[in-house]
């Protein structure tokens, strides 16, 4: 199979990641913080080492404020719903948001009577000015994605973070598509909370998501339960990270994430990534095919190796099915859990075909993919 669905979950996983995950299950075991025997101490050490590595890579102040959850969606729910909202508060977000951001914001709006401004980058001469002009005296937070999961467009997060810092606003960033591709500094970018999964561009395992909290952010836990400490008290402990991590952590996935982070650090030495070169060939080839429309805010000049496109007025699901059944090529089609983006482009009914690659793909696969699209386009 030609796997052009890396933005959904990366495949194949590096052997180092698989080995560390299996090693935790076969040779270490244990549940962090639940006992003092050797296996529990080793498991706890792996978890703490991973917190520290994440804090170092993403330049946050306190490893204890690196929190582990089931996935990035749960991390974003904790970040957004865990804040103390009141009637009249104001949130600024964008039309590029995945439902993992959009739906928690909608929940807050509905239940706390919070006002929401949704900035449409396509309608703004300057995205940065669009966010700046949306700020009011009641604005409490800017909550945005770093990279649109549909089109791969990159938002100027550092510049928007500067605006948030100037106006003393909370800045929450969904890094689900960007982390693993783009270097991010929580301190330098003015990010108060950064959420991301292990299983996408970081090449780690599924089942683990991260929330980095930078600075003093007053936040209440969404979940309550066993934490391994202060077990005789009825109240959830105040200490980080235990306050927010009730229940057993997925230590095998955390071990796999640690290995993925080591690979990520090693790969930072590359000047021009393999995936960038492949992506340039992919975009150039698609633009030459008659009947193909690609979607981007800036003609793919500032985007990750993700391309969303359609062939004439054919259903995106139909194109994806043909690619799968006739060419053994995996892509993703439809609305991609991001209806506002499709409303912006006018593709809510048709959807889009999304092809996404990484460094595990190769030039021959790109050529076969383009040949398949050419054949499909010529048949309609």
Summarize the structure.
This protein is an alpha/beta fold and 380 residues long. The protein has helices spanning 15-28, 38-57, 72-81, 99-112, 127-134, 157-166, 251-267, 274-287, 316-327, 339-345, 363-378, and strands at 2-3, 66-69, 90-94, 115-119, 139-145, 170-174, 193-197, 209-213, 292-295, 306-311, 329-330, 332-334, 352-356. It has 2 domains: 2-10 and 271-378, Aspartate Aminotransferase, domain 1, CATH 3.90.1150; 15-267, Aspartate Aminotransferase, domain 2.
Q: Into how many domains do the coordinates divide?
A: 2
Question: What's the mean pLDDT score?
Answer: 95
| CATH homologous superfamily descriptor of the largest domain | Type I PLP-dependent aspartate aminotransferase-like (Major domain)
The helix/strand class is alpha/beta
- Oligomer state equals single chain
The major beta sheet can be summarized as: 7 strands, mixed
Span between N and C termini?
25 Å
CATH secondary-structure class of the largest domain: Alpha Beta
Q: Say how many strands there are.
A: 13
What is the second-level CATH architecture of the largest domain?
3-Layer(aba) Sandwich
The sequence of SSEs as H and E is EHHEHEHEHEHEEEHHEEHEEHEH
Envelope shape? globular
Number of helical stretches of at least 4 residues = 11
CATH topological fold name of the largest domain: Aspartate Aminotransferase, domain 2
Task: Indicate the low-confidence ranges by residue numbers.
Answer: none
Rg over CA atoms: 21 Å
Query: What is the strand arrangement across the widest sheet?
Result: 2-8-7-6-5-3-4
What amount of the residues lies in strands?
Answer: 15-25%
């Amino acid at each position: 199979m030609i796997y052009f669905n890396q933005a959904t979950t990366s495949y194949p996983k590096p052997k180092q990641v698989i080995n560390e995950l299996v090693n935790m299950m076969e040779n270490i075991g244990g549940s962090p913080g639940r006992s003092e025997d050797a296996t529990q101490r080793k498991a706890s050490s792996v978890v703490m080492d991973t917190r520290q590595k994440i804090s170092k890579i993403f330049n946050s102040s306190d490893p204890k404020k690196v929190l582990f959850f089931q996935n990035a969606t749960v991390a974003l729910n904790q970040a957004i719903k865990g804040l103390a909202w009141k009637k009249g508060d104001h949130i600024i977000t964008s039309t590029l948001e995945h439902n993992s951001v959009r739906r928690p914001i909608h929940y807050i709006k509905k239940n706390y009577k919070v006002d929401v401004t949704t900035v449409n980058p396509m309608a703004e001469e300057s995205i940065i000015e669009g966010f700046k002009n949306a700020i009011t005296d009641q604005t409490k937070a800017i909550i945005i994605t770093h990279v649109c999961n549909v089109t791969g467009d990159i938002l100027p997060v550092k510049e928007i973070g500067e605006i948030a810092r100037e106006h003393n606003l909370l800045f929450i960033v969904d890094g689900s598509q960007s982390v693993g591709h783009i270097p991010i500094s929580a301190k330098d970018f003015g990010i108060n909370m950064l959420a991301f999964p292990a299983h996408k561009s970081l090449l780690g395992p599924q089942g683990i998501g991260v929330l980095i909290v930078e600075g003093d952010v007053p936040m209440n836990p969404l979940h309550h339960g066993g934490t391994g400490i202060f077990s005789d008290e009825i109240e959830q402990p105040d200490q980080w990270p235990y306050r927010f991590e009730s229940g057993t952590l997925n230590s095998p996935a955390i071990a796999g994430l640690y290995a993925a982070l080591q690979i990520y650090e090693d790969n930072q030495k590359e000047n021009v990534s393999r995936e960038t070169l492949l992506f340039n060939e992919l975009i150039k080839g698609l633009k030459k095919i008659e009947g193909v429309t690609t979607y981007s805010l800036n003609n793919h000049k500032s985007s990750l190796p993700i391309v969303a496109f359609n062939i004439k007025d054919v259903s995106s699901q139909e194109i994806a099915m043909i690619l799968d059944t006739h060419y053994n090529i995996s892509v993703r089609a439809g609305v991609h859990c991001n209806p506002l983006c499709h409303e912006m482009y006018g593709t809510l009914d048709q959807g889009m075909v999304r092809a996404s690659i990484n460094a595990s793909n190769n030039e021959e696969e790109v050529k076969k993919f383009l040949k398949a699209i050419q054949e499909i386009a010529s048949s309609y």
